[in-house]
Amino acid sequence: MTLSETQRPKGQASTAAASGRPAVFVDGAAGTTGLGIGERLALQNDVTVKSIAEERRKDAGAKRALMEEVDLVILCLPDDAAKETVALIDSMGAAAPKILDASTAFRVASDWTYGFPELAPDQADKIRVARKVSNPGCYPTGAVALLRPLVDAGLVPADYPVTINAVSGYSGGGKSMIARFEDATPPAFELYGLGFEHKHVPETQAYANLARRPIFVPSVGNYRQGMLVSVPLHLDTLPGKPDGADLHAALAKRYAGSAYVSVMPLDSAAAKGGKIEPEALNETNRLELYVFASGKYPQALLVARLDNLGKGASGAAVQNMRLMLGFAD
């Protein structure tokens, strides 16, 4: 799949497009996520993208006037700026557009809908009717996709002591990390977030339905984009002592028929020579889930592979945008 994979095939009708193309404004279009969204929207012919002059970007009156003309605003802003813009939109009453926020400001807010359409069988429908949707973080996308079906199925208890290890390309760290890796002499690899306070932990715990706070160990490699999220499990400590096939079946059932989430064959470890690399899904909105199970020990490893700028950010945003605008995909 390519950058255009969230695009509706030309000529295919939609409810939103029947009376004219819906209009979208990307606030923060110059950031990493905003640029990715812009690239994807440029490949679509059923959405009108509106913009504001750079010199008026911080003019609240000009921004409000523009937002009154659009159906949806996508926020690619720091948390505080996102909160300010949401407050402005909330003050617009009946003229207010729908909001899709890519910051972490509202990820666990009770009055916002979580923008992972594959979270549950009815989640895409919730996103379709929502006025406020929070776009998921990249790491939680992988972790929640792996854990939520297993918790829901009772294979992993909600209070299980979960550990999540993950590695991302440096583009996931924002402007400062990108500059450090591209303009300086960067390390080949480093762990970070070692104070147990990473901003993605509350989101992961909430949407994986975990009662116990998980341990999350993020890391960054000296490559631009691509991500692996892994969860090790001691199978003999789980209720009923499930094997790899049981875990795989639960994931396969949850994501059967999904356009973007694929549960890979259980024997894929042998096919890959016991290795998996993080960049294979770059420039796509795809998410691959793996179960690697030992034939000798009661142990398994769950792995999610995705593009941190695709399904982990911009690709997910365009997927959510299309649902919120009434398109079928």
Describe this structure in words.
This protein is α/β, with parallel strands linked by helices and about 325 residues long. It has ten helices and 13 strands. Strands 8-9-7-10-13-12-11 form a seven-stranded mixed beta sheet. The chain has a six-stranded parallel beta sheet with strand order 2-1-3-4-6-5, sandwiched between helices. Helix 4 (about 125-130) packs across helix 10 and helix 5 runs parallel beside helix 7. The longest helix has 15 residues, at about 140-150. The protein is globular and about 65 Å long. The relative contact order is 0.16.
Write the layout of secondary structure elements.
Elements: E1 23-27, H1 32-41, E2 48-50, H2 60-67, E3 72-75, H3 79-90, E4 98-101, E5 113-114, H4 123-129, E6 132-134, H5 138-152, E7 163-169, H6 174-183, E8 189-191, H7 201-207, E9 215-221, E10 227-234, H8 244-254, E11 261-263, H9 268-271, E12 287-293, E13 299-306, H10 310-324
Parallel strand pairs: 1-2, 1-3, 3-4, 4-6, 5-6, 7-9, 11-12
Antiparallel strand pairs: 7-10, 8-9, 10-13, 12-13
Helix pairs in contact: 1-10, 4-10, 5-7
